[in-house]
Amino acid sequence: MDKVITLTGKIDSNNVSKIEENISRDLDNYNGNIIIDTKDLDYISSAGLRLILKIKKQYPNTSIVNCNSDVFNIFEMTGFTQMMNIKKGYKNLSIDGCQIIAEGAYGIIYRVDSETIVKVYKNPNSLDDIIKEKDNAKKAFILGIPTAISYDIVKVGNLYGAVFEMLDAKSYAELLREGNDINKLVKESVDILKQIHNTENDNYELPSKKKEVINWAEFCKNYLPKDISMKLIKMIKEIPDRNTIIHGDFHIKNLMHLKNETLLIDMETISTGHPILEFACSYAIYEGFECLDPKNPEEFLGIPRKQCRDFFDLTLKYYFENENNNKIIDIKNMIKVICYTRLLRRQIKHFGLDNKKYKHSIDFCRNYLIENVPKVDKLYF
After folding, report:
1. Quick one: 45 and 108 in the same domain?
2. pLDDT value, residue 80
C-alpha cells in the first residue's frame, strides 16, 4: 500500500526542519511509493521544495495530489511538474439557479455572477479535454487571436468546468435576440475571422484540419458511388495546405461581446488549414444540420431559422466583399459539399444505417453529394 504524507498550512524555513523530522520518523524502514497530499497546503517556499526533492530522491515514485491553484502554480513555475507526477485538486462550484447562456455538443455555459462564466463539460471524463482547450486558448492568445482564457478548473457535481472572467459579457446570439443590427455583428465577426485566417502558426503543434476532412471522405467512400467518392477525395486532397489558424467551431454562441471587444471561446477545435474548412464547419451550424431536423439550427443558436441563414450568407458577403455574387455562390457550393461529407460520416458513424430516425438525414447527405460533387471542379478559393 502507498504511504500518504499530508502537508498542511504553510511550509517555509521556519518550520521545514520540524516537518522533515516528522516525515523521516514516519517513513522509517519504509521502501514503497509515496503520495504527498497537499489538499490543505496553502503555501510552500523554496525550503519546502528542497524537502520534497529529498523525498523524491529517496523514493523515486513520489507523487503529489490535490494541489490548489496557488500551490500548483509554484510547482509549475519551479519545474516540479516536469520532474514528477503532480495533480491539481479542484474546488467544487454550484450552478444551482445560474443562467444558461449557451449550450453546445460538449458543454453548457453558465453565468455564475456578473463577472464570471463557467463552461461545464457534459462528459465526466473530460478533464484532459479541458486542459487541452485551456492550452489551445493560451496558444491562440499568444498568436494574437482575441480569445478568452480559462483561469481555473472546477468540479461541478461529478463533472468538470472551466471558469472564465467575463464581466457583463453577452454572446452574439444574445445580442441578436435583443435586436442588435445583424449587419454590424456580422462585420465584427468577419473582422475576427479574417484575423484568425491570416494568423500563421509556426511555433505550436496543432492538428491539420485537412487531414481530418480527408478522413471524413475516406469513411464515406463505402457509402457513395466509386466515381463520386474518388473525385471527392481527390478534390479534398487538392485543397492547398496552410499553416494559418482555423477556429473550427466559429458561430454566434462562441463569440462573446465584452465591453468594447469581442472574444472567442471554445478553443478545443483549433487547428490549421485553409479557410474553406472553417466555413464548412460553420455552415453545418447555421444551416447544414437542417437535414437532421429543420428546427435544429434555430434551436441550437436560439435565433429564427431565417436569421441563421442570413447570418451565414452575410458572413460570406462581407468576407468576400471584393467578389461578385456568382463567385460567392460557387464558394458556398464548395462549402456545402465539404459540410455534407462531414454530416454523412457523422450520421453513419454515430447512428448506423439501420436507425430509422436518422435514415432521412443520411439519404439527404448521400444524395446531395451524388448530385453535386460532379458539379464542382475544386473545393477551395
Report:
1. no
2. 94
Q: Kindly report, residue by residue over 289-324, the tens digit of the pLDDT.
A: 999 999 999 999 999 999 999 999 999 999 999 999
124 and 36 co-located in one domain:
no
Which residues touch 57 (CB under 8 Å, ≥6 apart)?
none
Exposure b/e, 121-159, CB count within 10 A at least 16 = b: beeeebbebbeebbebbebbbebebbbbbbebbbebeeb
- Report the distance separating Cα 296 and Cα 38, nearest Å: 47
Task: Give the tens place of pLDDT for each residue, 346-368.
Answer: 999 999 998 888 999 999 999 99
The number of CA neighbours under 13 Å toward the Cβ of 274 is: 20
Roughly how many angstroms between the first and final C-alpha of the chain, as a whole number?
62
- Evaluate the CA torsion angle 370, 372, 375, 379 in order and state its sign: negative
3-state helix, strand, coil in the chain (%, to 5): 50, 20, 30
Handedness of CA 286, 291, 294, 299 (dihedral sign): negative
C-alpha cell at 250: 466559429
In 3D space, the residue among 274, 273, 257, 255 whose CA is nearest the CA of residue 265 turns out to be 255
For residue 295, what is the DSSP state? T
User: What residues make up the domain containing 70?
Assistant: 3-88
Q: For the chain, what is the radius of gyration of the CA atoms? A: 25
Check residue 98 and report its DSSP letter: P
346-378 residues labelled b (16+ CB within 10 A) or e (exposed):
bbbeebeeeeeebeebbebbbebbeeebeeeee
Query: In this structure, what C-alpha cell is assigned to residue 268?
Result: 478545443
Whether the CB-CB separation of 162 and 119 falls below 8 Å is answered with: yes
Same domain, 217 and 345: yes
Q: Which of 222, 221, 239, 238 is nearest to 230 (CA)?
A: 221
pTM greater than 0.85: no
